């Protein structure tokens, strides 16, 4: 079963040689005590310049945690326990965001990487006019800019996202949910950032508004050329907007591939199940099935594959080894895609003295 | 605007309620102590004043309750609060002499305490999980002791033992009140210890309140957004966190004002500071009911007024109230 | 003394739906903790435990105080104004009375008035608050205004003018007067909570099923208000204790009945300060502070229960510093502790 590119945007797989953000082995705990939850365990993810990367997974799998940790905005009791977040600026200089001191980090924020939070309802300071809030961000980085200039730029930004500039003098409570979301996007674009992280920017909105905003983001991206990490649990939305999709499960990336590849030929049992739990956007209807069971409790993960309890293809080795991201064991696959499943990793299975099983047909579509 | 009108209406109701309570209390009390007192003070109270007292305390048996009530309001609105037995002077005059002292002392000390406490609370709430948290148990202790007891301690340490400050009074009695530097400095000198005591005893409430609000507000997304924007620590702390945390702090200022005023009044007693509280105390001791009731009304009005001011400030601080209606 | 923990835990659920999305994170954290045995969770809060231990101590003294007091608190002796000694732990007064015995005997008065006033005021608060929140409309409006009026009117002066005009003022009378003036705070909080509960699904469902109002209130609403009622009760007790002591201190109330305030009243009127007799007023004040603190601590415990964000994170500042962790909003601490097993 293969369908054409759903909304027909060109398939652009950014060359891995031009990454703008590389998250390497990022580990995150919740809790400062001696019994923390290891929410992220050595997660690696690369965002290419100009690319839209979708991050999908069930609620609670750690998508927001990943986004916040990569920007070091994770609130207490979050704790980054290891890894690197390398940012490459336009001139090719790499910096590890996790090693910056406060001043450097402040300077880098919003300029290099801006973030739109999950739930823009609470992202705006209720007691300031939105113009001031946008201007605050601008002036923090360009102290020489006068308030007036900053407000003028804020007006342009609002215009960019389709809000009338006289809304500058509005307070957040005077705006609708969709408008606030756009204001947040405008605010995020204020300093022309190279990376824009959006954490479920549309979940709270109705379908029409969702569509508008997604299209707007796609359009702005084409115009301004920033890279996007777009987080959602709605995979079908990602197929439309993302170039590449990373699927997350229980604090780990389990599959990472071009958007259409994920859609048409998922390699991980979880990706496949996830796709079947949403109605397809276009093309033939397929049967909707929820994923049986519920995500594991991150505080009590064993050593095996975290998906084992719910996996239709689980076998003996699955309770013994936690699979690593490897190239799928399907001939002819895009060499840049990867999957974390023992069905694709016979070597790891043999290493624990088990017998590897072949990749099932559902996971080796071509 | 609607917001302010509503609030104003509420304060009018409260004022009416306070007056009505004042009207009924002597009328439902068993016994008739006021008549006896009037009789006892016959020579010292003019017949007119005695008449006013009869109305205020409902001694005219043959007047209907409603007429009494109307007449009561009539007297009040003319500033007639009766005659003090203890001071043989109109209650209004006694209060007028005392109130500037109380407003000066309690007002200034409360504002200092609120400002400082809010600042410290912001700091503690912002830097949670650091040494600053160890201030919490101390604040808890201070918020649990009665103000007047701290006053006793302050006097025994700073006046009796160290002799730094006078133990009682509001200015050097050998001076004649005037706008001279000598007199003013004496007022400041005498007021320092009571003011310090008020600040120390009331500040912990503000610290704790603000700390809790800061903790709550700091976990709001907009504070994280502020940090994500890379604004300075100061802007994030004051412009985003504290700026929002102060809203409930202002409302609780309005609500706890009555409590604080009550506590500080008793402190005046300990310091023999000639403010309203001191007179209330002497009125209680001398069973001077007109003075007691007059003072209660005046305190209520003052607290209401302070509430109106707090509401106004709240309205200025929070755009959401302004937009209503 | 223990508090029925299962009830207090309900309160925890109560807040959640109203929390902002980001605190869903915190709520989730709670979910995790909930995996562990939930019994006596409230009792694991060290603040609450400390508060209850101290309160328990005073309750005990209130019961046995008069029996264990070494002297008759009013009995005069020749040991006039003696500083603390083995015979008189807290020294003696100008009449040679034993301050320690006065405090022991006086504890009962304080506790009785505190609890009677607390119970009465809480009862009024629950009736007014829940009714207002449940019936809504004009009735709610009226009751709210009533509660707010009582909140704004300065309580202590009001208590003074009421108590000051009563011919005789015993402990219970004072308790009643305090309750009449001090119920409003609890009513206000309860009203707000009832209002939001009323819109919850389970209450709506009960109403749709035609359950009787009385049953809905007792079976669906009140159990969910337990934490708030408890904290209101504790707060009112603290307020009542302070009021009683203040009233006694300014000489309102029966001075024949001992309580900590009357001890202070005598100390003040007999110029203990000027005579340097610190032992006369320090112990009573410390007792008030301790009792007040215990109540505050219990309330902190309840608050942190209901609002997990307030928890002092259970953090040990020293161990955090050692690991280089400074918990802050917006700057997640980075420690290099995770083992790296992947390339
Ligand atoms: N303070 C905390 N303490 C313990 N665990 C936490 C804490 N905050 C979050 N978690 C856990 O971390 C995991 C990841 O949460 P996260 O918010 O990143 O999920 P998400 O993928 O963004 O979900 P959603 O789609 O609902 O936004 C969850 O399982 C959650 O239970
Ligand atoms: S490793 Fe095993 S359990 Fe995990 S996804 Fe693959 S087949 Fe399923
Ligand atoms: Mg999320």
Question: What's the SSE blueprint?
Answer:
The complex is a heterotrimer of chains A (366), B (325) and C (343).
Chain A: E1 19-30, E2 37-48, E3 52-56, H1 63-70, E4 78-88, E5 94-96, H2 102-108, E6 113-116, H3 130-141, H4 147-160, H5 177-188, E7 195-199, H6 207-224, E8 227-232, H7 235-241, E9 244-249, E10 252-258, H8 259-264, H9 269-275, E11 338-339, H10 346-351
Chain B: H1 2-28, H2 33-40, H3 47-57, H4 65-77, E1 83-84, E2 89-90, H5 91-126, H6 135-144, H7 147-161, H8 181-218, H9 221-229, H10 233-271, H11 276-285, H12 289-317, H13 319-323
Antiparallel strand pairs in B: 1-2
Chain C: H1 5-15, H2 21-34, H3 41-44, H4 46-68, H5 99-135, H6 137-152, H7 155-165, H8 171-182, H9 184-198, H10 201-208, H11 213-249, H12 260-269, H13 278-306, H14 317-323
Please give a structural write-up.
The complex is a heterotrimer of chains A (366), B (325) and C (343). Helices cover 27% and strands 20% of the residues of chain A. With 366 residues, chain A is of the alpha/beta class. In chain A, helix 3 crosses helix 4, helix 4 crosses helix 5 and helix 5 packs parallel to helix 6. The longest helix of chain A is centred in the middle third of the chain and has 18 residues. The N terminus of chain A is likely disordered. Chain B has a domain of 183 residues: MetI-like fold (Orthogonal Bundle). Chain B is 77% helix and 1% strand. Chain B is globular. Chain B has 325 residues and is mostly helical. Chain B has a two-stranded antiparallel sheet with strand order 1-2. The mean pLDDT of chain B is 82. In chain B, strand 1 and strand 2 form a beta hairpin. Chain C is mainly α. Chain C contains 14 helices and no strands. Chain C is flat. The N and C termini of chain C lie far apart (57 Å). The N terminus of chain C is likely disordered. Chains in contact: A-B, A-C, B-C. At the B-C interface, helix 1, helix 6, helix 7, helix 8 and helix 9 of B face helix 2, helix 6, helix 7, helix 11 and helix 12 of C. The structure holds adenosine-5'-triphosphate, iron/sulfur cluster and magnesium ion (MG). Chain B: Pfam families: BPD_transp_1. Chain B: It is found in: Cell membrane; Membrane. Chain B: Belongs to the binding-protein-dependent transport system permease family.
